[in-house]
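Table S2 (text version). Query chain:
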Amino acid sequence: MPVQILAVSDAIDQRIHSSSLHDRMPDVDLALGCGDLPGRYLEFIVDAINRPLYYVLGNHADEIQRDRDGRPCGPLGCIDIGGKVVRDQRTGLILAGLPGSPKYNDSEPEQYSEREMAIKIAKMTPRLLWNQHRYGRALDVLVTHSPPRGLGDRDDEAHQGFQAIRSFLDRFKPAYHLHGHVHLYDRSKPPVLCYGETTIVNVYPYQALEISVPVIEISHRPAMSAPGRPPEPVTPSDGSFSPLRIEGGGRLTTQVAVFESTTEMASDRGRSVVRERVTTVSASR
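Corresponding structure-token output:
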């Protein structure tokens, strides 16, 4: 099942903060915020597309606002998935989120040590394992603010990635990992890389993606559900992701192809489309 995603991070982009957003992106199924965006910007997006928006906090926690009584609150109509695992009921997409950045000073609210990030992941692990049991996969998309250590991060202390996130990818193998935090101003540097079974995308300032969601048939045991709720319906399928569809080009198996207006990412587990990049890079799988 193809799912259209709008992912945003770190900067307000006038192409998104526009009255024409719905007309230009009418087929978006959901939006993802990868941190450090004003809450009013996320509220605008969720109103414009009239679809769910899931987000994590960036290290600056710009998403936090004040209600009429002066109490802190998140953007209205948006869902904070920091430290959580959720399943979008409309698309079946399984999401997990991790907020913030590695700790590098005492002035930003959402900074974590490696140990603190590992604890967050440990608290999410039971649900991830339940998903593996129930759906045949722990998750589809990991949404974070920071990148994994050594995978799209930088050498300076403020923009290093988390080793804990890299270990998460090794263990749970999401099809996609979307992050921000590292601002890509140089268009010659691709926003996409492949790590094991995961396609990693730096979404700064925004990316429009299309991915496929597998549906697993479970015939040897009944679906588990909360007390008082009927089991979730399961559609028969082979459980595999669809091959990538290359718009305007051929099929790729071991290459990340980035065209004038379209980036195509080859992956054994899914397909995705990322717009507005300008280079071609090889990526071993």
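Notes on Table S2: Residues 114-135 form the longest helix (22 residues). Residues 2-242 form a domain with the Purple Acid Phosphatase; chain A, domain 2 fold (CATH 3.60.21.10).
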